[in-house]
Amino acid sequence: MIDTILFDLDGVLVEAKLIHYEALNRALAEIDPIYVISWNDHLGIYDGLKTSQKLELLTKNVGLDPSLYKRIWQRKQEITLQLVSNLPYDTSLVALFQRLKDEGYTIGCCSNSIRRSVLTMLSKIGIIEYMDIVLSNEDVRNSKPHPEIYWHAMSLLGKSPDQVLIVEDSPPGLLAASFTTSEILRVESPKDLTYSTLMDKLQHTHTPHFPRWE
Question: Among 103, 110, 151, 166, whose CB has the most other CB atoms within 10 angstroms?
Fold first, then answer.
């Protein structure tokens, strides 16, 4: 029986894709506009990856000098924190999480973002107090699409995959979730995340069978 829900952050709880997209592109533009990522490339190639993975792809695809990684990464985090400081309190999401906690669900957030960004966003939108566990890419060796972050969350919570529903949106996140063998709810944006959507999924759960991560 599912009694635990693990949520991705960007694109699931917060409409943060534009924030990360804009922050990285501002940092890249300060180096050279040639490295700026188009929206189509973001959706088709870079979406859901952590910043270091995006920079490695930019080296492969457009010749970004690896010696610039640290400078770009630090600048991107500075800009991201500036942008997330303007996130509004989300009354609908707070009501949803209050209801889930009242019904006894264990709740967690597992994000490919750095811990400071994750905690800032959860605090700004008003739901950090409902979290039983919060994991960032700094808490694991392998970020999504590797399933380590979800395995780690389940281990810390003392849960088995058949007790967990994972809510994801991006291809890397969905792939990570699939390798856990837990039930998965895919959403396109935070607007899709409602009590009825969650309950409908929970009422139609089945035992999925996916290949093991090698």
Answer: 110
Q: What is the DSSP letter of 87?
A: P
Report long-range pairs for 94-97 (Cβ below 8 Å, ≥24 apart). Answer: 94/125, 94/126, 94/127, 96/193, 96/194, 96/195, 97/127, 97/130
Q: Hey, is 42 helix, strand or coil?
A: helix
- How do residues 79-126 score in pLDDT, each as one tens digit? 998 998 889 999 999 999 999 999 999 999 999 988 998 999 999 999
Residue 4 in 3-state DSSP?
strand
- pLDDT at 206 (0 to 100): 55
DSSP letters, 183-197, are EEEE-SSGGG--HHH
171 and 48 Cβ atoms separated by less than 8 Å:
yes
Q: Are 13 and 193 in contact (CB under 8 A)?
A: yes
d(CA 198, CA 33): 42
Instruction: Please tell me whether the overall predicted TM-score, pTM, comes out greater than 0.85 for this model.
Output: no
Q: How confident is the model at residue 49 (pLDDT cuts 50, 70, 90)?
A: confident
Cβ of 2: how many Cβ atoms within 10 Å?
A: 17
